[in-house]
Structure prediction request, 216 residues.
Amino acid sequence: MANWKLVGGIVAGVVVLGGIGSACDDDGATSGGSGIPGAETGAGTTTSSGDAKVTADTRTVPGFVGMGLQSAQDTAQAAGFRSLTSHDSLGRERNQILDRGWKVCSQTPAAGKTVPTDTELDFGAVKLDETCPAEDETAPAEAGATMPDFTGKSVKAARRALDSGTSVTVTDASGDDRFVLVESNWQVCTQQPAAGAKSSGQPVEFTAVKFGENCP
Prediction:
């Protein structure tokens, strides 16, 4: 009799476990589902391959040219564009630290173009008392095997075009022996080695005057 009671107990246990397994299957925690809300195929968060589905919102880019830089940035953000940058339209490599002191001369992408809202908007700008160029002036090309022509470029832009290990000396071309402190405010008058010369890591010498002054 004891053996029959033992067998009966085992059978009852198997039945109970089977019922629990069926209940788990009904809740989707075992085969047929991951148990994670929204992970099922067709839930709108995954594709048939399991990759995340990304749908970027698109908007029409407003016109910003002529606006103050700060106002342009505020308008862009209000329109849904959050990735913003700016650059010096005069090619002097100046930083736009106080945005209210700058105005927009150019923009990329152009006004009226429809793009995703995660597209970066780039504003070309000059200071309020400056005139916008007809086209954004480009920074000098990076020095490679030959020395670029830096004449008329800002000392800061010229320095950036050289290898970071290059030894650079800058002197005041006016003869007043002024210190060249804010290099974006000074333009190159002469250079050694000359433009087109072989560039092989040799020291570079510039003479310069402030923008608005004439080179001697």
In short: Residues 97 and 141 are 25 Å apart (CA to CA).
